[in-house]
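The authors assume throughout that readers already know how a fold can be written as discrete tokens. What matters is that the chain and its backbone geometry are given together, residue for residue. A single example would do more here than another paragraph of explanation. For illustration, here is how one protein appears when written out as sequence plus structure tokens.
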Amino acid sequence: MWILTKKIKIPEDVRLSQKKILHISDTPESIYKFLEKLLKEVQPDIVIHTGDLVDNIKLERKPWLEKTYRRKLAVLKQVLSKSSQLYIIPGNEDKEDIIRETFQNSAIIVKPGTVLNIWGKSIGVGHKPEDVFGLKADFLLYGHDPKEKFGLNGVRSVNIITYPNWKVFMLPYPPGTNFDRGYRLPRGL
């Protein structure tokens, strides 16, 4: 319900920028409505998803959920297909062949560790931090590990890169996203 009632605060610099890249990662299906609303608000020219597209379905550990993964991936395709250009870097919980089959020509599937050239800047992309660590690039985009803090970690925040000033804006995911990703809250005093 939070997703439908809470206004997403988009910085004015993002709204006024000529072009925008939106970076997301490790998206459980519970945030697909949030993503739909975010895409409508931000209107990015490029979306880069750094893997684990249906992150609540841990396909690597539960391959018997492949049918459900396919269905949820089709829903995500409908959400993300509204962007002009979509790059997907498959994660450890994804199946690349199913992504290719589902997205067909509506996404560019990129191998982890690739450096993209976008509007004159180099952008290193991967799913895991080690996929991009050490790459020579202006920006490093990844997900998978919420503890890593170098570059732009798409698990920690939704990242928006603006052009031509190349500013980075980090927006929070909805409350409960990490729980739906399977991250458990630390216990303690």
